[in-house]
Write a structure and sequence with these properties.
With about 900 residues, the protein is of the alpha/beta class. Strands 6-5-14-16 form a 4-stranded antiparallel beta sheet. A 4-stranded mixed beta sheet has the order 10-11-9-12, covered by helices on one side.
């Protein structure tokens, strides 16, 4: 075996798995099933670190269950990503000087399909480099024929039930994409704006009311000014009329409890067509809705002097017109929340328009009922409360989008009588007047509508397929907490409504991956970690182990390449341990089976650790405690197996304790590596497959092996634990006193326990080799003499003479300088932490870091004082 080079093994093994269809559940005869559907990435997407995380965690569970004997399906698919994909193709066409309007709808959609076939699904190729064991034979696309049929049926059925309707309502409008958006597709950002104060003159000429607004251009669509009914400043004016500045339209002064008398001037301009709250107030007071914008947010013909101007240009020019007319009062800076399109970051413009909506309250109530019954569980549990709060306040879902790429809404309108027809098939005539002149709805459905059906539409619903029978409901869902409302909630509601079952009993919501400082990754900041670059440099297994080890509930992950590099060192450790075992196979021949030997003390100890690690990793993965599973794997492989067992059994492997001990050590060594690779495989599939294939004791792919087998050995672990503790204490004394590795010391063991003294005598060679000891002296009792370094263990004490090995004067001087340096740093930190000004201004995480650093320094100072006291005895 050569050195560990991930680029040499990863492609080789993925091609092997795929060629042999090892991911396909049809090759399993198990009657236990386990299924996950992938959160479908956009067809435009490429693998980013968030994708790497969610797909890594899913693959860990899928591989774990596959090895546990389940018929396992992990189903791949991509989302057509309506707006995002249309934007990509439009951008490509513009490079050729072509606008989509020139092509027309049909030809433009053809261009998107062409793009999809040549450039789409890149992410699937990239997921292979991560090791994702998806069943590619079942790959789906939200616009494929089967899923499209499911979407149309769902829409028509919900329409017939009265849950889907068409109406005029205020929606979030993106002027750049020229489409409506749901609330979930809008990011609210704190933005520096300006409060403009405008005087609205009373119709009777007796005065004016001053209003304040951050969007003065929308005054062109004002149809009232509202005040609180109990506001003494305005009570006498309620019912009177104002003249809208510049426009000259007469508008009423109305009273409404919604108005906050303490905010601004206490008088609020009402623009029902361009503000959600004003829209609701307009409905209560039967106000006219006047649209002032074209679909690109330029001013329409409502006010000719500004017609055609962009809203922000119009805003500045309108203020100048107000000044000229004497209506302008003042302006002042104002921070406020402004909605931005999640995709293109354009400022959203609320706008009344005719859209398709889905009633959600009854479906949300059913979903809440299932959760309260325990039929769906969120992990971590705090996400249940967040889910409940959103469900309890859910609004009707705006389904329609004014784009060309997506599922076209299956609706037609009669040009003769305007009758609305919703049908799974294209109607030939109007059912009301029998006219044949029909026009098709131009809007498409929100992308999340089709992805809301993903857990069951991908398995053939509404047909009663074998996949639906075997794999629905899905076993679990793993995704980021940031799409709890976008996707998870909608899948839950749609699943219950359409299939009568929750789509998955458990939902694990992981955190987001941020940079090492906790900042969101962005190309602008230059802090993006590209998983493909990481895989090229460190290998997929190192990235997978890092992400698994850092996933703790829904906490965000702070990731740095240095951590990934450290985990590649861990893989090197496992690689070298296996090479060590194979070198002994070359020298000694094939090992016996573990059942054919009598394990020694250290063999029993590592077998017990293997059994513990196997059961713990299994339990942690079942409970979605990914970080704990990875931590247990690290502890077992690095600390217990590599650092201790391999070192402890070297004398046995070289025949220094007899043939039986040698046979037992070799058999145990290979057994532990074989089983240890199995429990490691779900997290590190590539390196485990490579090493497993090199073992003389194995046959077949590791991913099809039985997970969780460990050879149980009945035996007392006291002797092994004692030897390990003794060596650790001796090493600590050496390290704390800066004793060079090549210097051998005498060690006196004091214990009245015959088992311990017998073990020390039997394994003195191991102690000498691993602790740098010349001679082990065993005594039942001892009065502590001056000048010996000592340590206390469980049932024993050790004493070591450092006088010959240590330059007491030089070591005292070294520790004194270190003590002085630490005391200075502790004083500085204490001063900062007792400064009220610093505590008031510094970020909480900085203060916590300072506190942690001070505590660490204080602990070091205690240890330094002990060491200096010990040195003083030697002087």
């Amino acid at each position: 075996m050569e050195q560990y080079l991930p680029e040499k093994i990863e492609k080789k093994w993925y091609e092997f798995w795929e060629k042999n269809q090892l991911f396909n559940p049809d090759n399993s005869t198990s009657d236990k099933t386990y299924s996950i559907v992938i959160p479908p990435p956009n067809v435009t997407g490429s693998l980013h670190i968030g994708h790497a995380l969610v797909n890594c965690l899913q693959d860990v569970l899928v591989r774990h269950k596959r090895m546990a004997g389940f018929k396992t399906l992990w189903l791949p698919g991509t989302d057509h990503a309506g707006i995002a994909t249309q934007m990509v193709v439009e951008r490509e066409l513009r490079k050729q000087g072509i606008e989509r309007e020139e092509l027309g709808r049909e030809k433009f959609v053809e261009e998107i399909w062409k793009w999809k076939e040549t450039s789409g699904n890149q992410i699937f190729k990239q997921l292979r480099s991560l090791g994702a064991s998806l069943d590619w034979s079942r790959e789906r696309f939200t616009l494929d024929e089967g899923l499209s049929k499911a979407v149309v049926k769902t829409f028509v059925d919900l329409y017939k039930e009265g849950l889907i309707y068409r109406g005029s309502y205020i929606v979030n409008w993106c002027p750049k994409d020229k489409t409506a958006l749901s609330d979930l597709e809008v990011d609210s950002k704190e933005t520096q704006g300006t409060f403009t104060h405008i005087g609205y003159p009373l119709e009777d000429g007796t005065g004016e009311i001053i209003v304040a607004t951050t969007r003065p251009e929308t005054m062109l669509g004002d149809t009232a000014v509202a005040v609180h009914p109990d506001d003494e400043r305005y009570k006498h004016l309620i019912g009177k009329h104002l003249i809208l500045p510049l426009v000259g339209r007469k508008i009423p002064i109305i009273a409404d409890d919604y108005v906050d008398p303490e905010f601004g001037t206490g008088a609020v301009k009402i623009t029902p067509a361009h503000d959600p709250n004003d829209f609701q107030m307009g409905k209560r007071h039967n106000l006219e809705e006047i649209n002032i914008f074209n679909i690109d947010a330029t001013i329409n013909d409502i006010y000719p002097p500004l017609e055609g101007q962009d809203r922000f240009t119009a805003r500045k020019n309108l203020v100048e017109l107000l000044k000229e007319g004497g209506f302008f009062k003042s302006q002042e800076p104002h921070m406020h929340a402004v909605g931005h399109c999640q995709r293109c970051s354009t400022v959203i413009e609320p706008r009344v328009s005719v859209q398709w909506f889905c009633k959600m309250k009854d479906m949300a109530s059913e979903a809440m009922s299932e959760m309260n019954k325990g039929n769906i569980k969120f992990i971590p549990n705090n996400q249940s409360k967040i889910f409940s709060e959103w469900m309890n306040n859910i609004q009707d879902w705006c389904l329609s989008r004014q784009i060309w790429w997506g599922h076209r809404i299956p609706a037609w309108y009669c040009n003769s009588c305007e009758h609305e027809i919703v049908s799974e098939t294209t109607p030939s005539e109007c059912p009301e007047c029998k006219a044949k002149d029909l026009r098709e709805e131009t809007d498409v459905l929100d992308t999340w509508f089709s992805s809301g059906l993903f857990p069951f539409s991908t398995m053939g619903w509404p047909e009663k397929t074998q996949d639906l029978k075997d794999f629905y409901p899905n076993s679990t869902l793993i995704t980021g907490y940031d799409i709890l409302f976008f996707w998870v909630a909608r899948m839950v509601m749609m699943g219950i409504k359409l299939t009568g079952e929750v789509p998955f009993p458990e939902v694990f919501l992981h955190g987001l991956v941020r940079d090492e400082n906790g900042d969101k990754m962005s190309k602008t900041k230059g802090n993006v970690i590209d998983p493909l670059v990481i895989i090229d440099e460190y290998g997929a297994d190192a990235l997978r182990f890092t992400l698994t080890r850092m996933t703790s509930g829904s906490r965000d992950i702070k990731l740095s390449p240095q951590v990934i590099a450290g985990n590649k060192n861990f893989i090197n450790k496992i690689w070298n341990a296996t090479r060590f075992a194979l070198s002994h196979y070359d020298r000694l021949g094939a090992p016996k089976k573990i059942t054919e030997v009598k394990p020694g003390v250290f063999d029993q100890w590592i077998l017990d650790k293997l059994d513990h690690a196997t059961s713990e990793v299994d339990r942690y993965l079942t409970d979605y405690r990914f970080n704990e599973a990875a931590k247990q794997l690290y502890t077992f492989w690095w600390n217990e197996f590599c650092d201790w067992y391999i070192e402890l059994v070297k004398p046995m492997l070289f025949g220094k304790l007899g043939q039986d001990a040698e046979d037992a050590a070799l058999a145990t060594l290979f057994h532990v590596i074989e089983q240890g690779l199995k429990i490691l495989h779900p997290v590190m599939p590539f390196v485990t497959e490579e090493l497993f294939s090199e073992l003389p004791t194995t046959d077949g792919s590791i991913m099809l092996q039985t997970y969780g087998y460990a050879h149980k050995v009945e035996g007392d672990q006291v002797q092994a634990e004692f030897i390990i503790e003794l060596i650790s204490l001796a090493r600590n004394i050496r390290g704390e006193n800066n004793i060079k590795p090549n210097v051998k010391l005498n060690l006196t063991l004091v214990t009245g326990d015959g088992t311990l003294s017998g073990a020390a005598q039997a394994y003195s060679e191991n102690i000498s080799a691993l602790a740098g000891i010349k001679e082990v002296i065993i005594l039942p009792t001892m009065t502590e003499p001056e000048g010996l370094a000592s340590a206390v263990g469980k049932g024993f004490e050790i004493f070591m003479d450092l006088s010959e090995a240590l330059d007491v004067k030089a070591e005292t001087a070294r520790l004194g300088k270190e003590q002085e340096k630490l005391e200075k740093k502790a004083k500085m930190l204490s001063g900062k932490l007792s400064n009220d000004g610093y505590l008031a201004k510094a970020p909480a995480e900085v203060i916590e870091k300072d506190k942690g650093e001070l505590a660490e320094i204080q602990e070091k100072l205690v240890k330094l004082t002990e060491n200096l006291t010990q040195l003083a005895k030697l002087a």
